[in-house]
């Protein structure tokens, strides 16, 4: 296992300043920036997986990030950090090749390798440690974090408990499987897989006579393109279905991208709950559309297959939802489809299904059951999260519980965006320390999202001491 060796008994009893739960890119960003805080912070980050991996099932050859390389773990708040992507390249003697490649968007596999370099180098990261429960101990004024240490095979090796003044939840998301397809996805004999596991099952999928891809986002497009390139001309036998009205490009205009700035995040957080909920559903094209280059590559591949006459045996149909699904014979799948605009229904028999149906926030109720009496919730029963990314807890809890990528309902479409990772991590560290180890910009967008004027924050004032906006 990579990372730091298991915690010793003395370390376990010694309270930490911050314990992180989960080591994905966001908590890895926080750990990297915490490493640079002057005076030092006592931190520990726990992850149940044995090593860092970032969407391994979707590291399709040639696929790129949808954000520039500057959206690494640290650069947008600390360009001089030793944990930057450019320093990673330098450590691998690859700066000049990268310079001549002139690539603003790097490959996903390279981003995964960069993050693993950071995770292998930082101290205080404990892989193979599964967090089981979090509680508040009022007598000690500390959070208790119970964990299970796992061996290389995932078997229980030891139980432990860590104490911390503050915690941060960065457990990420999990694949979302629509209800009609869950029984099939859970059946081992039926080839129905989520795109998160695509590469693990790629050969089995390609061996199927007919393949169906469901989902109109970037993952669906990349899987469809990869399958299309691997199938014989004229015998592709692929269906690509989507609920959206079109296979739409992601909003990538310069001003459209300003929805992924701290300015918009602060604006969104100050809106009423009902308004925020309405906005999130309307803004799907900001984060669920398809990269324009991928759309172009798909069209080019389809066009190339018409050069000698005929059309490829590939069907691309938007506006379609799967009502129900079932097994036919032993391994075939029958999808019952409905077209919204035509108000028509049909059936499709296929041999393999790839569900590019996105991700959902991991449920935290089991892990946070011990905090439930202290947790304040909104009208929909979701955790309330303040402007500093803290769960709103009862005043008797003197520590802070921060969240990363679990706050879309309070902070908007930028919650899962890698481009805001460093800024959010720095905001958490500024809040936690009550200082400004990482001075943050007062303005980040040309767009003024509301009529109320945002109030600039004095250079050294803790963010918690100032109102978010000034209203007339």
Overview of this protein structure:
The chain has 472 residues and is an alpha/beta fold. It is built from 14 helices and 20 strands. The strands form six sheets. The chain has a five-stranded parallel β-sheet, with helices on one face. α8 links the parallel β10 and β11. α8 packs parallel to α12. The longest helix is centred in the N-terminal third of the chain and has 14 residues. It is globular and about 70 Å long. The C terminus is likely disordered.
Secondary-structure topology with pairs:
Blueprint: H1 9-13, E1 18-21, H2 25-34, E2 43-47, H3 85-91, H4 95-101, H5 108-121, E3 125-127, E4 129-137, E5 142-150, E6 156-164, E7 167-169, E8 173-175, H6 182-185, E9 192-194, H7 202-206, E10 211-214, H8 218-230, E11 238-241, H9 262-269, H10 273-282, H11 284-287, H12 292-304, E12 314-317, E13 320-328, E14 332-339, E15 344-350, E16 352-355, E17 359-361, E18 401-403, H13 408-411, H14 421-433, E19 453-454, E20 469-470
Parallel strand pairs: 1-2, 1-7, 2-3, 7-18, 9-16, 10-11, 10-16, 11-12
Antiparallel strand pairs: 4-5, 5-6, 8-17, 13-14, 14-15, 19-20
């Amino acid at each position: 296992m990579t990372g730091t060796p298991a915690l010793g008994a003395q370390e376990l009893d010694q309270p930490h300043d911050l314990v992180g739960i989960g080591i994905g890119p966001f908590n890895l960003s926080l750990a990297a920036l915490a490493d640079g805080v002057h005076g030092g912070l006592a931190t520990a980050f726990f992850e149940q997986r044995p090593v860092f991996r970032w969407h391994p099932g979707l590291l399709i050859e040639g696929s790129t990030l949808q954000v520039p390389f500057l959206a690494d773990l640290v650069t947008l708040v600390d360009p001089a950090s030793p944990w930057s992507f450019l320093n990673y390249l330098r450590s691998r003697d690859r700066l000049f090749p990268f310079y001549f490649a002139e690539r603003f968007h790097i490959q996903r596999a390279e981003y995964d390798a960069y993050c693993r370099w950071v995770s292998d180098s930082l101290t205080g990261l404990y892989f193979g440690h599964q967090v089981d429960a979090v509680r508040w101990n009022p007598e000690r004024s500390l959070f208790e974090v119970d964990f299970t240490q796992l061996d290389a095979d995932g078997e229980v090796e030891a139980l432990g408990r860590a104490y911390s003044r503050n915690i941060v939840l960065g457990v990420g998301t999990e694949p979302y499987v629509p209800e009609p397809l869950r029984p099939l996805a859970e059946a081992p004999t039926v080839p129905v897989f989520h795109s998160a596991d695509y590469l693990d099952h790629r050969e089995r999928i390609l061996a199927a006579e007919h393949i169906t891809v469901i989902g109109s986002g970037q993952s669906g497009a990349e899987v469809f393109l990869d399958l299309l390139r691997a199938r014989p001309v004229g015998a592709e036998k692929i269906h690509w279905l989507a609920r959206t009205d079109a296979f739409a490009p992601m909003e990538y205009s310069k001003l459209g991208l300003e929805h992924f700035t701290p300015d918009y995040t602060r604006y969104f957080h100050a809106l009423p709950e009902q308004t925020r909920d309405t906005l999130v559903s309307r803004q799907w094209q900001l984060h669920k559309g398809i990269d324009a280059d991928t759309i172009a590559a798909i069209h080019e591949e389809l066009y190339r297959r018409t050069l000698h006459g005929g059309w490829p045996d590939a069907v691309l149909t938007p506006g379609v939802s799967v009502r129900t699904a079932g097994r036919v014979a032993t391994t075939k799948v029958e999808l019952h489809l409905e077209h919204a605009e035509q108000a028509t229904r049909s059936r499709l028999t296929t041999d393999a299904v790839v569900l590019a149906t996105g991700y959902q926030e991991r449920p935290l109720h089991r892990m946070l059951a011990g905090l439930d009496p202290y947790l304040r919730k909104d009208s929909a029963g979701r955790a309330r999260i303040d402007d500093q990314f803290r769960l709103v807890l009862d005043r008797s809890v003197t520590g802070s519980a921060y969240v990363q990528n679990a706050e879309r309902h309070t902070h908007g479409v930028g919650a899962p965006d890698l481009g805001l990772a460093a800024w959010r991590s720095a905001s958490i560290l500024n809040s936690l320390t009550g200082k400004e180890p990482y001075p943050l910009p007062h303005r980040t967008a040309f767009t003024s999202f509301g009529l109320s004027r945002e109030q600039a924050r004095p250079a050294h004032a803790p963010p918690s001491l100032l109102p978010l906006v000034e209203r007339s």
